[in-house]
Amino acid sequence: MNMRKIAKLAGVSVTTVSRAINKPELVNEETLRRIRQIMDKHNYHVNPFARNLINKKTKNIVMMIPNASNPFHLQVAEGAEEVLAAAGYILTIYNIRKNIDRQSTLLEYVRTKKNSFFMDGLILVGSGSLQEGYQKALKNIMQTPIVAIDPGPVEKGIDTVYTDEEAGILLAMKYLSKKGHSSIGLVAGEQKYKLTQSILKEIKRFSKLLNIKIEEENIVYGSYASLESGYSVSKKIIYSSKPPSAIVAFNGILAIGTMRYLLENKYRVPEDFAVISCGDIPFNGFYYPGITSVQSPAIDLGKKAAELLLKKIKNPELQNQNILLPPSLVVRESC
């Protein structure tokens, strides 16, 4: 059974049947009833995917995240999915694993597939992998509605939603100063990422203002996605010639790795070493001692990004927005 046969049985045109399916409010009530009765009798159901193809809408939104093992990114996706599902959209997640070459290739793939029922919009998560290759690839898909959960750099014409990174770091540094810490060590992520350099720059700036010392030997680099790296690199700080009184981890995963090493080696937290994280994940609150952390509103970031994207899909001419959400400091036992 198809629309042509239904039209013949109902004594109407194929156009009328199509209108009855897609815009029933435009069809005479008696005609609509007759068409629907025939459809029910012959068990004819509309394929929503095919209809989306006709309308050049897929109802599919793509989200690219740096690493699916990071609970923060999954919380962002959870927030976005809640909004998108309510609007009838499906969220497809791509784990790009912070690989710039792969990300550029994937963005190029998105560009070429956009007009062949791949997606209606794109949400980009994570500034850790923003490199030149990313920017060039991004320019190639500017006709696709894009929202970046990222303070930048991003190209002109892209909506952004982000947390005030500077304010979050200041909260952590002021708290360390208030607790009497005059020297700190840093467990950072990959040194090559712009995210790492941005956090490092702000920590050093505020440490000078607050008279907190940071010895170069107490700045170590691991991997944002690896608990093991936080575990292994933190020992360099602990056994340095000038050990600090507190350790600042650049995200929740690194913080947990650091805590594990300290506790496994019989150090008391926070008495021997205090630990504070520049990013909060659910595990930070359930770990014991709980890890004091700067918290970004991950679910709200996802929701706001999805809302902006839906508006842009509906009206591509809307002026771009840059929405800033405030961080907070969650105080727990580690500091």
Account of the 3D structure:
- The chain is an alpha/beta fold and 335 residues long.
- It folds into three domains: 3-46, no CATH class; 60-163 and 298-325, Rossmann fold (3-Layer(aba) Sandwich); 165-295, Response regulator (Rossmann fold).
- The chain has helices at 3-10, 14-22, 29-41, 48-54, 71-86, 100-118, 132-139, 165-178, 194-209, 227-238, 252-264, 282-286, 298-314, and strands at 60-65, 90-95, 121-125, 146-149, 159-163, 184-188, 219-221, 246-249, 274-277, 292-295, 322-325, 328-330.
- The protein has a six-stranded parallel β-sheet, with helices on one face. Strands 7-6-8-9-10-12 form a six-stranded mixed β-sheet, with helices on both faces.
- Helix 1 (3-10) crosses helix 3 (29-41) and helix 8 (165-178) packs across helix 9.
- The longest helix is centred in the N-terminal third of the chain and has 19 residues, at 100-118.
The CATH class assignment of the largest domain is Alpha Beta
CATH structural fold name of the largest domain: Rossmann fold
User: What helical percentage do the residues reach?
Assistant: 40-55%
How much strand? 15-25%
CATH architectural category of the largest domain: 3-Layer(aba) Sandwich
**Shape descriptor:** elongated
Pick out the low-confidence regions: none
Major beta sheet, strand line-up: 2-1-3-4-5-11
| SSE run | HHHHEHEHEHEEHEHEHEHEHEHEE
Number of domains: 3
Strand tally = 12
* Rg, nearest Å: 26 Å
Total helical segments: 13
User: Going by CATH, what is the homologous superfamily of the largest domain?
Assistant: Response regulator
How would you state the average pLDDT, rounded? 84
The largest β sheet comes out as: 6 strands, parallel
